[in-house]
Design a protein that fits this description.
CATH class of chain A: Mainly Alpha
Structural class of chain A: mainly alpha
Radius of gyration of chain A: 19 Å
Helix content of chain A: 55-70%
CATH architecture of chain A: Orthogonal Bundle
Oligomer: homodimer
Number of domains of chain A: 1
Largest interface: A-B, 68 and 68 residues
Strand content of chain A: 5-15%
Largest sheet of chain A: 3 strands, antiparallel
Shape of chain A: globular
Chain lengths: 149, 149
DNA sequence: CCTTGTTAGTTACAAATCCAACTATTACAA
DNA sequence: TTGTAATAGTTGGATTTGTAACTAACAAGG
C-alpha cells in the first residue's frame, strides 16, 4: 500500500528515541522515587559526583544542557542541601559547585544502582556488540545537523 | 578523586539520550521549519503514512505514545487538514484516522528527507556496525524496568 | 576612565508535557 | 434488563521545558 521504501521500524533516530526513553524511564523511577529528583537534577549530580567541583557552564558544555536547565536544577539541589555554591574570588560571575555529604551519598547510591542497571540492560548483548554500540552512539551524538539537497 | 568505578561517558542510557537528542533535534528542524509540526505530530503522520488507516489507540500502542499526546497531535493535524477522522460505525468510541492528500504529500516529503538524513547519519559506520546497532537498539527499547537488589 | 562587547547565571512568559479526572460508548455478568 | 467494569478519546490544571530578555561582572580598545 505504501509508496516509499521508508521503514520507520528501522529508522535510527526513531529507534534511538525508543531505546533512550525506555532506559531513561526505568532509571527515572529510581532517582525520582528515592530522592524526588528530576532528570536535569541527576545529570548535574552525576557530573559533580564524577568530576568534583565544576561551574554551571562547565556542566553545560559537558552535558550539552542549556544553562537555564542547569540553573534551575542547581537551585533545587541547593534547596535540598545536596549542592553548595561558592563565588569565584577572581571572577565573581562564576560559581563553583560542589556536592555536600548528603549529595555525595545520593550520588554514590545512584551510581551504584546505575552500574547494576546497565549490566542488566546489556544482558542480551555480547561483549563485542556492546563495544560497537558504544562507539556508534558516541559518533551519532557528535553528528552534525542536516544538510539539504 | 572519585570513589566509584562508574563512568558516565560510557553509561548506555546516557549515551542513548545524547545520540537520540542530537538526531531528533536535527530532524526536528526539518518538519518544524517546513510544516510547523511538533515531534508528536510527525510521529502520528509517519505512522499513518506507513500503515494507512489507524485509530489513535493503535498508534499509541505502536509508537508507545500516551493517548493525550496523540489526541492533541491529531487535533492539530486535522486543523491543518492533513488528517481526517471517521467514526467507526460498529464501535462508535473509535475513530479511524487517515491522511489527506496534503498530509500524504507532507509524509512523502519528510520520509524522503528522513531516509537521506539517515544515510548521512550512518556515514561513519560500517554495514556490520549498523546492523549491530539496529538489533541492539530494538532489544534495548524492549527491555524491562529496573529490578532492585 | 568610558564605551562596547562578551560571559555567567537568573528570571519571566509562552509552549509543551504529564497526570488525573472526565464523557461517551461498549461489554458482560447477575 | 440493569449495574459494573472496561475502553476510546478528550479536557483541565499543575509541572516542566524552551526562548528570549535581563542583571551583574569582566575585557579590551580608544
Amino acid at each position: 500500500m505504501q509508496s516509499t521504501e521508508f521503514e520507520l521500524e528501522k529508522f535510527i533516530p526513531y529507534l534511538l528515541n525508543q531505546a533512550a526513553e525506555t532506559s531513561s524511564l526505568a532509571f527515572e523511577k529510581v532517582y525520582k522515587g528515592r530522592y524526588g529528583m528530576l532528570r536535569t537534577e541527576w545529570r548535574v549530580l552525576f557530573h559533580l559526583g564524577l568530576y568534583g567541583r565544576m561551574t554551571a557552564s562547565e556542566i553545560g558544555t559537558r552535558a550539552k544542557m542549556h544553562k537555564t536547565k542547569i540553573s534551575r536544577a542547581v537551585h533545587r539541589l541547593t534547596e535540598r542541601r545536596m549542592v553548595t555554591r561558592a563565588r569565584d574570588t577572581d571572577d565573581r560571575r562564576m560559581e563553583h559547585l560542589t556536592l555536600t555529604a548528603k549529595g555525595r551519598a545520593a550520588y554514590e547510591d545512584l551510581s551504584g544502582i546505575a552500574a547494576r542497571y546497565e549490566v542488566s540492560l546489556l544482558n542480551g548483548l555480547s561483549r563485542d556488540e556492546v563495544a560497537v554500540l558504544r562507539t556508534a552512539l558516541v559518533k551519532l551524538a557528535e553528528s552534525k545537523p542536516i544538510s539539504f539537497t
